[in-house]
Amino acid sequence: LVVRHAQVFRDKQNINVLTGHCVETTNPDKQTVAGSTTDGKDFEFPYDRLLIATGSSAIRPEIPGVDLAGVFVLKDLDDGRKIKNFLKNNNVKKAIIIGMGYIALEMCESLVNLDIAVDMVKPNPVFLPWLEPSMAAVIRDGLESKGVGVYAGHVVDRIQTSSAGLQLIGPDLNLTGDMVLVGIGVKPNSRVADSAGLELSIAKSIAVDRSLKTSAKNIYAAGDCADALHIVTGAKTWIPLALRANRAGWAAADNVIGKNAALEGVAGTAVFRVFDFEVARTGLNLEEAQRAGFDAVENTIQSSSRAHSYSSSRPHPIWVNMIGDKKSGRLLGVQMVGTEGVAHRINAPAVALQNRMTVARYSQTDLAYAPPFGPTWDPTLTAANQLLKKM
Ligand SMILES: Cc1cc2nc3c(=O)[nH]c(=O)nc-3n(C[C@H](O)[C@H](O)[C@H](O)COP(=O)(O)OP(=O)(O)OC[C@H]3O[C@@H](n4cnc5c(N)ncnc54)[C@H](O)[C@@H]3O)c2cc1C
């Protein structure tokens, strides 16, 4: 860790932090974990209670050339250091990113800011498929206006070295760059749990209940390796994000020492920035709402981040997509894109989802107004009012 070193845990909290120890097996009957250290020694430890918090790993596509020098993933600090070293020691003028998720997009911005030309490529022809199409188009236009090549709908069959650098080859693809970053998502590290016979769930994450208990006695799991309940659908979901990992860690720790903590669930609230745009979401998108069996209706509005009367600076556009359930009137999800005022604005609808509010009740909430911060009617209130007309 950067924020707190292992030694601080040892000195201040009296926690026996054993870095360089990889757990390979768990025996729930004997209540032991076993594995090996980085210097090749085997170990076995007994436990009364076990918390599995093994996180997730970057997915690497099984294509020839993915292990070539100059091809990277970005998951942990070491990956970041390797990328930085490569950039320092090589004259990288062009990078190719495989994947277009939030980490890929954040990396794209960082590389462009270093004056490196970037092409992005992925097999799905739909750019940001979870985002409302007109809002996704705004982001895509923003990327292209920065000179980023967006190759959505192109399969990479192999990576090879050529005289011009690293070459990505596919049926209708031939891109060349000095480095390649693979950012195609993560998968839960559940191998240890799986081999011990623990129940797995969505995307092979470890199945846990509200108290973070797994299917095995005295074993808990929390964070990216474990599933969670979705507060809107009530169904199991797997959303690898930091707050819910951290919160689950705290709750699991409480339960391990005999307290009785139970989590309500997650809404999948998330935000990222790419170049000038902030992109945020909470709850379900239209497709997810329909798949979950809701009678979902949606509406997208364009508003602004400041009052038009506010003369000090131009208001920035904000697009809001809101989803509601026609049958119950419930708010199901909100997405937002804009050049300012998006990131924290998503938190009001996130709270509304937690409280199972209807769109009508949300439209009555007394949100703050002053010209520098938004129009009199907050964009999310305008979105709710407009959605109500369709419900
Ligand atoms: C580049 C990047 C940017 C991100 N940005 C955001 C963001 O802006 N907002 C957000 O909400 N989330 C973000 N995330 C996601 C967030 O980092 C994760 O959700 C969070 O770190 C999960 O915490 P965790 O403790 O469950 O897992 P991790 O942080 O992955 O920790 C798991 C630990 O378990 C160890 N481990 C794994 N297997 C074993 C084993 N067999 N034996 C022993 N130890 C093992 C690993 O070495 C690691 O130390 C980002 C992730 C990445 C990669």
Radius of gyration: 23 Å
Name the helicity range: 10-25%
User: Which molecules other than protein and nucleic acid are bound?
Assistant: flavin-adenine dinucleotide
List how many beta strands DSSP finds.
Answer: 22
Average of the residue pLDDT scores:
95
N-to-C terminal Cα separation, in Å? 48 Å
Stretches with pLDDT under 50, minimum 5 residues = none
Count of DSSP-assigned helices: 10
Q: List the strand order in the largest sheet.
A: 6-13-7-8-9
Indicate the structural class. alpha/beta
Our estimate of the beta-strand percent is 25-35%
Which term fits the overall shape?
A: globular
Largest sheet: 5 strands, parallel
Spell out the blueprint of helices and strands.
Elements: H1 6-13, E1 21-27, E2 32-37, E3 42-46, E4 50-52, E5 56-58, E6 71-73, H2 77-89, E7 94-98, H3 102-113, E8 117-122, H4 133-145, E9 149-152, E10 158-162, E11 165-170, E12 173-177, E13 179-182, E14 186-188, H5 191-195, E15 219-221, E16 228-229, E17 236-237, H6 242-256, E18 270-274, E19 277-283, H7 286-291, E20 296-304, E21 317-325, E22 331-338, H8 347-354, H9 359-363, H10 379-390
